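hi support,

uploading two proteins for the ticket. first:
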Amino acid sequence: MVLNRIGPLSAAKVVAVLYAIFGLIMGAFFSVAALFRADGGGIAPLWGVAAVVVFPVLYAVGGFIMTLITASLYNVVAGAVGGIELDLR
């Protein structure tokens, strides 16, 4: 069996969700780190809260765009060289 084509939009949607989950995890780590930096004021506590919202969005958008480009490029290259051979059971 040979993988000749990847649906760029469907692949990008799946990766965007996975990256959003990863971004949420990274945002939580940054949020905890911001708690340790909090010295009673400043922007550190605000950054910690914002990281939980901003990171998943940035990761999802970045993952979506990069996967859309990569899957489209794969389709062009697979058309020229024949795709990837898969052994499924």
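and the second one:
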Amino acid sequence: MLSETALAREATSSCNNETFGFSSALPGADVIQSKFLFRPWLTGLFVTVAQLAIAVLLLAPEGTFSYRYSSLVQHDGFWFENIVDRGYQTIVPPINHKVMEVSNVAFFPAYPALAGVLSSVFRVDSQIALLLVAQIAAWGFWTYFLLLCERWKLSSSLCFFGALVIAAHPAAFFLVAGYSESLFLMALLGFIYWSGADGRAAKILAALHGIVMSATRIVGIPCAAYPVVRDVFGKGWSALRNPRRWLQNYGPSIAVMAAAILGALSFFIYCQVRWGRWDIYMLTQSAGWNIEPDYFAVFRPSNYHWLLPELSNPTEMSQMSMTIGALLLLAVAIVELWPAMRRRTEWTTRIGIYFCAVVIYYISVSGVASLDMESMLRYEFCVHTLIVLAFLHFLRQFRLPPLPVRAFGIAVVVIACAVSLSVQVWYVWNFTRGNWVA
């Protein structure tokens, strides 16, 4: 938040009368700090609590509060619980079907590691620890989303509808469930936020968020290139054509990228030291889940499905989400192209976000293509979030449209969100009862 930092510095100047005045057209440093510290954090907490209350109090199965709350741990959550309780265990090669008591090295370590620390320090059950970590991370995710909106000086209405479009996604409830989505998105948005700030402390915070990001999901590894992509396009081709100044122009972003991949690199080194195979994660995914990456899957027309899926068929919904994800990315390319050609857009600010969305989509589709796109609904949620975030920044460059246009746009968004929330309610109801949804 460069503008706020500049104002705070002005307030400390000995020749600035704002320091001593009781009224001013500009906010003082204390007001700025209060705004920075409380508004995004409190709003993020409110959204997280609202998501949690709807899932636990309204949709979870009947029973005590602890039973309803623990129903948010299902499917992959049980694997995370096994890792928290037993640590990583496997035979080499891994067992050729899903047995967590034999081979459980099928998930990256950041989420279960943080839950394990929380469980040990506060003496809580591992299931509760997993949920607390996920929900604290969800709070962090919403906070960073709002901080980015604040940095870009977006209007309150844009922030509200942007948050609504994200929260209404059918898979948004995974933010408060026993899954790693919220931790990954919190780390990713924190990485984006601090990478765009000035100062050594900001770079250190960006690196720390990047380490958590790459240690949470494998797609975090290519996302670590975000600051480099942003700087390459932001500084222009003239800077790229001058190799003698590369270190000056791109050195800090390359250093942040290198630090960010340490999370995944540490996991691979651990696997190599313990089992003699750095790729035991990939082997376990292949042996237990039959995952065989198809890096040409996004280019195969047969992988795209156009029929309206049945709610009771989560595989069809995931297949459709792959198609919707591709359409969204194509729409973004079209919408961005014309203003960019006329040099009337700040596309260089968004290019890094689009880069992360594309690599997450591509790697996710490549990984689940052999499973008929199973779980793609959940993976596409991360892509959806980044597209919404970038689109909000895109809209800020336009003047306020006429009232009829605004009314029509709001009506379309509200109707679409209502339909999507209805689907999410159905999925939460099924998920908390142990049914597979994504």
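thanks. also noticed: The chain has 18 helices and no strands.
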